[in-house]
Amino acid sequence: MSDPVRSIVRRFAGVPTLEGAGVRLRRSFSNNEVPLFDPFLLLDRFGSSNPEDYLAGFPWHPHRGIETVTYVLNGEVAHGDTLGNSGVIGSGDVQWMNSGSGIIHQEMPHRTEGTMSGFQLWVNLPAREKMSVPAYRGLTAAEIPEVTTDAGSRVKVVAGRFGTAEGPVRGIPVDPTYLDVTVPPGGSFELPTHAGFTVFAHTVEGTGRFEGTDSRPVDAGETVLFGPGGSVRAQAAETALRFLLVSGRPLHEPVAWYGPIVMNRQDELVQAMRELRAGDFVKHRRPTLEE
Ligand code: FE
Questions:
Q1: C-beta separation of 256 from 265 below 8 A
Q2: How far apart are alpha carbons 156 and 35 in whole angstroms?
Q3: Domains of the chain by residue range
């Protein structure tokens, strides 16, 4: 007998939030939801056709103890960091950045014709990895495999496996799967998941439903958390249903969180603040970089 389907247990409409130097975005979940989404900490969706909503961007700021995953759907985000990386994240590109012991970076959206949109997901690091050497992965849209199922769904695989495809982001401690799924009108889609992993979906556009005890329709912009079980099954309504489907192994470790720094204990936050003030927060950097 196969495992029961995973059913939606919580729904999050997203809260309008002002972040960075004044970017209007929608926050799906954050520190109020700990530990519901463990090992995931935060999901922000930015999307606006008004440049005033995003041009202020996210000027130089620190991170420690987490991975930040930026997925640009449409538009461009310029970035730079204390590892010496800099460039532009374009439409369909992903930046998977492991802050480890500390990084200072900036993320500045460019003025975009039409709608500038994308996501930022924060993935927690296990205690043993929080002070590790920072690592940066920049992936272009062309490097992200796209699979078409027999039933006609298109699946971009950023991390984890789907069918014969494996996402280019590998070696992440919590073994994440990160898919961008488009189910055609009236179509259906199924993803087997690891037992014991946390699984959630965020509806990018369209409407449809997920099978289970709560199979009420999901709307664009909604984030849904699944309970235990085997597969996730989605059905599109009369329009195509596009959603992010994310899973990972929970850490079950204490979370101490202050802004862009997420550790396990309060004293580690105090130490991070002290190091920021003293100017020795960043442990690994390119010596030539000028901030
Ligand atoms: Fe950041």
A1: yes
A2: 28
A3: 14-143+264-285, 145-253
Distance 154 CA to ligand 1 centre (A): 29
CA of 123 to the centre of ligand 1 (A): 12
Q: Domain 14-143+264-285 falls in which CATH fold?
A: Jelly Rolls (2.60.120)
Distance 95 CA to ligand 1 centre (A): 11
Q: What angle do CA 280, 251, 210 make, to 5 degrees?
A: 125
What span, in angstroms and rounded, lies between the C-alpha atoms of 17 and 285? 32
- Ligand 1 centre distance from Cα of residue 50 (Å): 22
Tens of pLDDT, residues 208-232: 999 999 999 999 999 999 999 999 9
Same CATH topology for 14-143+264-285 and 145-253: the answer is: yes
Given a contact cutoff of 8 angstroms between Cβ atoms, the answer to whether 218 and 245 are in contact is no
Q: CA 71 to CA 180: how far, in whole Å?
A: 10
What CATH architecture is 145-253? Sandwich (2.60)
Instruction: Give the integer Cα–Cα distance in Å for 239 and 184.
Output: 7
HSE (side-chain half, CA atoms, 13 Å) at 283? 14
Confidence of residue 252 (pLDDT cuts 50, 70, 90): very high
Copy the structure tokens of residue 140.
């272009």
Name every residue whose Cβ is closer than 8 Å to that of residue 60 and which is 6 or more positions away in sequence.
104, 105, 106, 291
Instruction: Please name the residues in contact with 22: beta carbons below 8 A apart, sequence gap of 6 or more.
Output: 56
Residues in CB range of 222: below 8 A, 6 or more apart? 11, 12, 13, 14, 202, 203
Task: Enumerate residues 6+ apart whose C-beta is below 8 A from 171.
Answer: none
